[in-house]
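User: I'm curious whether this sequence folds into something compact or stays loose and floppy. Could you predict its structure so I can see for myself?
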Amino acid sequence: MPYVDRVKENHDRVLAGEAEANKITSQIWKDIEAQQKNAAVKPDVNNFLGTYTDKWFGDVTVSMKNGKMRFDSKRSFLLTGEMFPYKGSTFIVKWDERSMDADAFVTFSLDSDGKASGMKMKAISPLTDFSYDFHDLDFTRKAR
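Assistant: Here's the prediction. I'll summarize afterward.
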């Protein structure tokens, strides 16, 4: 049988996957940077502020602190971070704890008045560890 360097083959596959994931996340941060420069694109964040709850995960608060939109989990101090408008009713949460490498999309569902009634999450990078089951969370907004 011909010799095949399986270690190199696997290493190259891992490097290619990391490069693709970096390409995806880099493009998203470039989009956000461009949107921050364009004041006309910014949504009214007041429509999204409030406390949201998921039956399994518990409460999170979306609030303004020091002029920045924030995501704060009541159960996990690691899941706190700044939120950035992305597209429509989708925001990006950039976790304060950078070692997690698990920034996420936060997509709000809107009621008939255009105010958030719930939200769902999805990891940005395809390399985000599967243990961050963001996509399984289904947050509903608590009564104001």
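Summary: The longest helix spans residues 6-37. Helices lie at 6-37.
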